[in-house]
C-alpha cells in the first residue's frame, strides 16, 4: 500500500467529520465552547466568570468580557512565573511568543491538550492536500520555520515560535518526510542558515515547499545561483562549507547526517552545463505544490514566486496566528478556507464597529458574504473571547460554514486629510498594478509624510535590475489611479488638492533584505516576518537608502 493511500485512510475520517459539522456550525460551536468551559471551570479565570454555570452561548457572551492581550497579561504573567490553574487546568509546556501592541511580547500558552486540538486541524488541512496532490509523499517536504526556543520564563518554561514548536512535535513517521532537521533553524547567522537549507534541500527530491511567508521562498530561490558552485562541491564531498558561521554543536549534528553524493552532484553539474544555472524547476522537477500564505499583503509576492515555480499550484496555509489556526483551505484556488468550527469558538466584530465602545460580536451564522470582520476566539489554550486583531473577509460558505480569507492585521489605517487609508486598500491597489504589468517588486510600502504639505511616499524596490524612468513613472501613475479607485475619500482629497502629489521613492537594491535581516536579528520571526504596506510614521522611510525619486507632473 502506498504512503499516500495510507495517509488518506488515516486522515479521511477526520475530514469527513469536519465536513459533516459544517452542515450545522452552531451545534459544533456550542459543543466545543462548552467542552472548554467545563474543562477549565475550576481555574482562576473560570471561577471568576462562573464557567460552571454557563450552559448556552448567550450566557457565555453576557458573562465573559471581550478582551485583548493587555487585559489578560496579569494572568499570563502568573503563568510565566510558574503558577498553575490560572487560565487552563492543564500544564503549560510552551509559550508561543509574538509581537504585541507594546514593547513587551505576548506569550500564548500551549498545553498538551491544546496541541492535540491544533494537530487535528493540521491533519484535516493535510488531508485535502494529499487528496489533490498524492505525489507530494513521493519525495521530501521542504518546510521552513522559526527556531522553537528563544528563551525560558522565570520558572523555566520555554518560549519561542509556535511554528518551530509544532515542527519539533511532529510524529516520527511524519517528521521523516521533512528534509530539514530542526537544528538548521537554530543557526543564528542567517547567511549560514539559508546556505544550509539550500545545501540539504538541493540534494533531495523535493515535492513541496511549505512556509508561511512566500517572501522566504523567493529569497531562497534568489540565492541559489550565487551559491550553486559551493553547494555542488559540498554535495559531491558530503561536507558543509567550513567557512560558514555555524555553532559547533549544530555543525557536528548536521555533518553526521551528510554523505558524499557524486551521483547527485553530477546531475547538478549537467543542469548548470545545459541551462547555465540551477533553478527550482530543474532542481525539483517533481514539485507538486507550494504551501504559503496567499491572502492580505502576501498577494503582491505571488507573481514572483510563480516565476520560480512555473505551473506549480500554490495552496494557502490558512488564516493562522500564534493564538489560533482559524481556517482550513480545501483547494489551490484563492486564499479562503472553511472556518475551523470544531476546534475554536468564534465571534466576529464587524469592521465598522472596531472603534466603537459598544461593539457587536456576531456568531458565525450571522456573517455575510463580502463582509469584513475582526476575529474573536475562544481556544483550548486558555484564550476566552480574545480579539486576535486579525481582519478577515467572508468569501462564501461551505454548506452553512463561512469560508474566510485573511485581509490584514488590525485596522492599520492612516489619515492625513480625512481619507482614512487602509492597508488592505493599498494591498489591493498594488496587486492590481503588478497583475496588469510586467514589473515585480521585492518590497513596497506607502508612508505618510507630514512635513510641510501632507502627501504619501510610495517606497519601492523593484525585482528587476534595470527599470526605465518611464516605466517607473507609469507605475506611479497606475498605482495612484488604483488607490483612488480603492478609497473614494483619498480620491476626493487628491482631487481637491488637500493632499499633495505622491512621490515614488525607489530604494537601492538589497535594502529590503537588509531591513528584514535587521528586524529578524532584533527578534522578529524569520518565517513570519511581514513588512508593513502602510505606515503613518514619517520616519519609517529613514530605514532605507533612496536612489531615485519620481514625482507626478
Structure explained in plain terms:
The chain is α/β, with parallel strands linked by helices. The protein has 3 domains: 3-113 and 317-409, 3-Layer(aba) Sandwich (Rossmann fold), CATH 3.40.50; 134-312, no CATH class; 413-551. 39% of the residues lie in helices and 20% in strands. The strands form 5 sheets. Strands 9-10-14-13-12-11 form a 6-stranded antiparallel beta sheet. The protein has a 5-stranded mixed beta sheet with strand order 20-17-18-19-21. The protein is globular and about 70 Å long.
Q: How large is the share of residues in beta strands?
A: 15-25%
Distance from first to last alpha carbon:
67 Å
How does the helix and strand content classify structurally? alpha/beta
Overall mean pLDDT: 91
Element layout with pairings:
Layout: H1 3-21, H2 25-39, H3 44-48, H4 57-63, H5 69-80, E1 92-98, E2 106-111, H6 112-132, E3 140-143, E4 151-152, E5 158-160, H7 162-168, H8 172-175, H9 190-202, E6 206-210, H10 214-237, H11 248-255, H12 262-275, H13 280-283, E7 289-292, H14 299-308, E8 314-316, E9 327-328, E10 337-339, E11 345-350, E12 372-378, E13 386-398, E14 401-409, E15 413-414, E16 421-422, H15 423-436, E17 441-449, E18 455-462, H16 469-486, H17 488-495, E19 503-507, H18 511-521, E20 534-535, E21 546-551
Parallel strand pairs: 1-5, 3-6, 6-7, 7-8, 17-20, 18-19
Antiparallel strand pairs: 1-2, 4-5, 9-10, 10-14, 11-12, 12-13, 13-14, 15-16, 17-18, 19-21
Helix pairs in contact: 1-6, 9-10, 10-12, 10-14, 15-16, 16-17
Spell out the key features of this protein:
3 domains, alpha/beta, Rossmann fold, about 550 residues, 18 helices, about 40% helix
Amino acid at each position: 500500500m502506498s504512503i499516500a493511500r495510507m495517509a488518506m485512510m488515516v486522515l479521511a475520517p477526520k475530514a469527513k467529520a469536519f465536513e459533516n459539522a459544517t452542515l450545522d456550525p452552531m451545534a459544533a460551536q456550542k459543543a466545543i465552547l462548552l467542552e472548554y468551559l467545563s474543562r477549565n471551570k475550576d481555574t482562576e479565570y473560570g471561577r471568576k466568570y462562573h464557567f460552571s454555570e454557563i450552559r448556552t452561548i448567550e450566557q457565555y457572551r453576557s458573562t465573559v468580557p471581550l478582551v485583548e492581550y493587555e487585559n489578560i497579561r496579569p494572568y499570563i504573567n502568573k503563568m510565566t512565573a510558574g503558577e498553575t490553574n490560572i487560565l487552563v487546568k492543564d500544564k503549560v509546556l510552551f509559550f508561543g511568543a509574538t509581537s504585541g501592541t507594546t514593547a513587551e511580547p505576548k506569550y500564548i500558552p500551549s498545553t498538551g491538550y491544546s496541541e492535540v486540538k491544533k494537530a487535528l486541524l493540521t491533519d484535516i488541512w493535510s488531508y485535502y492536500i494529499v487528496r489533490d496532490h498524492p505525489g507530494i509523499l513521493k519525495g521530501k517536504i521542504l518546510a521552513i520555520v522559526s527556531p522553537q526556543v528563544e528563551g525560558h520564563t522565570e520558572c523555566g518554561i520555554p518560549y519561542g515560535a509556535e511554528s518551530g514548536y509544532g515542527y519539533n512535535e511532529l510524529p516520527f513517521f511524519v517528521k521523516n518526510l521533512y528534509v530539514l532537521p530542526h537544528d538548521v533553524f537554530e543557526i543564528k547567522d542567517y547567511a549560514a542558515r539559508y546556505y544550509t537549507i539550500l545545501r540539504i534541500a538541493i540534494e533531495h527530491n523535493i515535492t513541496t515547499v511549505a512556509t508561511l511567508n512566500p517572501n522566504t521562498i523567493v529569497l531562497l530561490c534568489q540565492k541559489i545561483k550565487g551559491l550553486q558552485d559551493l553547494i555542488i562541491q559540498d554535495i559531491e564531498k558530503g561536507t558543509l562549507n567550513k567557512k560558514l558561521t555555524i555553532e559547533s554543536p549544530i555543525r557536528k549534528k548536521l555533518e553526521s547526517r551528510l554523505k558524499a553524493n557524486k551521483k547527485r552532484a553530477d546531475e547538478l553539474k549537467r543542469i548548470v552545463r545545459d541551462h547555465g544555472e540551477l533553478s527550482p524547476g530543474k532542481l525539483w522537477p517533481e514539485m507538486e505544490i507550494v504551501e504559503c500564505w496567499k491572502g492580505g499583503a502576501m498577494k503582491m509576492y505571488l507573481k514572483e514566486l510563480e516565476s520560480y515555480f512555473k505551473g506549480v499550484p500554490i495552496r494557502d496555509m490558512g488564516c493562522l496566528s500564534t493564538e489560533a489556526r482559524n481556517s482550513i483551505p480545501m483547494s489551490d484556488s484563492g486564499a479562503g478556507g472553511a472556518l475551523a468550527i470544531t476546534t475554536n469558538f468564534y465571534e466576529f466584530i464587524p469592521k465598522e464597529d472596531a472603534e466603537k465602545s459598544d461593539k457587536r460580536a456576531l456568531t458565525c451564522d450571522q456573517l455575510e458574504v463580502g463582509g469584513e470582520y475582526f476575529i474573536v476566539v475562544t481556544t483550548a489554550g486558555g484564550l476566552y473571547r480574545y480579539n486576535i486583531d486579525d481582519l478577515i473577509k467572508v468569501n462564501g460558505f461551505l454548506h452553512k460554514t463561512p469560508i474566510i480569507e485573511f485581509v490584514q492585521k488590525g485596522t492599520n489605517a492612516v489619515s492625513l486629510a480625512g481619507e482614512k487609508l487602509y492597508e488592505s486598500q493599498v494591498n489591493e491597489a498594488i496587486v492590481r498594478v503588478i497583475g496588469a504589468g510586467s514589473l515585480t517588486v521585492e518590497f513596497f510600502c506607502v508612508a505618510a509624510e507630514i512635513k510641510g504639505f501632507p502627501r504619501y511616499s510610495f517606497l519601492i524596490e523593484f525585482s528587476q535590475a534595470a527599470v526605465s524612468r518611464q516605466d517607473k513613472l507609469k507605475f506611479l501613475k497606475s498605482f495612484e489611479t488604483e488607490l483612488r479607485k480603492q478609497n473614494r475619500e483619498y480620491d476626493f482629497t487628491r482631487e481637491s488638492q488637500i493632499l499633495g502629489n505622491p512621490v515614488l521613492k525607489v530604494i537601492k537594491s538589497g535594502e529590503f533584505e537588509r531591513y528584514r535581516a535587521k528586524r529578524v536579528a532584533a527578534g522578529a520571526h524569520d518565517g513570519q516576518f511581514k513588512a508593513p504596506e502602510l505606515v503613518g510614521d514619517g520616519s519609517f522611510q529613514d530605514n532605507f537608502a533612496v536612489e531615485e525619486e519620481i514625482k507626478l507632473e
